[in-house]
Amino acid sequence: MLDQTGLISDGADGLSMMMCPPCRTCLTHNKVPALALANCLYRGSLPDRFLDMTWIEEKVCAIYSITAHVTRLFQSSDPAQPKVFHGNTCAHDMNIVSTASVLPRTPADINGFLSVIFIGPEAFDLKRVGTLFRVRKHKIWSFLLWLKAHNRMYAHIPLDESIMDLYPVDDTLPGLQDRVI
Fold first, then answer.
1. DSSP states along 70-130
2. Rounded CA separation 163/102 (Å)
3. What is the pLDDT of residue 82?
4. Which of 61, 60, 72 is nearest to 110 (CA)?
5. Is the torsion defined by CA of 158, 70, 52, 66 positive or negative?
6. pLDDT of 1 over the 60 cut
7. Is the peptide bond before 104 cis (omega within 30 degrees of 0)?
8. What's the pLDDT tens digit per position in 146-172?
9. What values do phi and psi take at 117, rounded to 5?
10. Sign of the alpha-carbon dihedral angle for 94, 141, 154, 151
């Protein structure tokens, strides 16, 4: 199975195939690339309704968590835009793997993997972070139900709908304010 976007028509002569350098290197040495479809890693495409999920929403639904996330936020130094933040998030490998026995993960679980470093002249205002730490209760639950029906890794993971009561309908991750340094 090949992704159609990786095939380029050469006109009447046939097709050319695009591939990443690591895959090309493996294939020239008669080795199967680590992320090849032959390794049974392909899980299919997500339905369009899940393409706008935030990274926090994905983390809430993840069985395994192997990274801690540190976000640095800077308040704009431009007096004309005092409410603008910019920054970056870095994921760091942890020396332990957190495996969920029940999903979704609680906000406390997610906050345990997060730190937010805020740099600015004013106090941190959670309302200004926009969608960076956005969670939507319906999106998370809908995604978990879809995963349970379509991904064999989720088939036997119990889903606890009562945990969804800990999340807002559409707002920032509860408890995030306590993770700000």
1. EEEEEE---TT-TT-EEEEEEEEEEEEEEE-SSBSPPHHHHHTTEEEEEESSS---GGGGT
2. 10
3. 60
4. 60
5. negative
6. no
7. yes
8. 999 998 889 999 999 999 999 999 999
9. -105, 115
10. negative
Dig out the tokens for 145 from the structure: 């139900």
Integer Cα distance of 82 and 78 in angstroms: 6
pTM of the prediction? 0.73
Cα dihedral sign for 144, 104, 66, 153?
negative
Give the DSSP per-residue string, 16-53.
Answer: EE---HHHHHHHHTT---TT-GGGT----PPPGGGTT-
Question: HSE on the CB side for 36, CA within 13 Å?
Answer: 13
* Percent of the chain's residues with pLDDT above 70: 90
Helix (H, G, I), strand (E, B) or coil at 144: helix
**167, 141 contact by CB (below 8 A):** no
Q: Are 176 and 126 in contact (CB under 8 A)?
A: yes
DSSP annotation of 155 reads T
What distance in Å separates the CA atoms of residue 62 and residue 160, rounded to the nearest whole number? Answer: 14
Report yes or no: 135 and 166 within 8 Å, Cβ to Cβ: no
Query: Does the CA dihedral 87-88-94-98 come out positive or negative?
Result: positive
DSSP secondary structure code for residue 154 in this structure: T
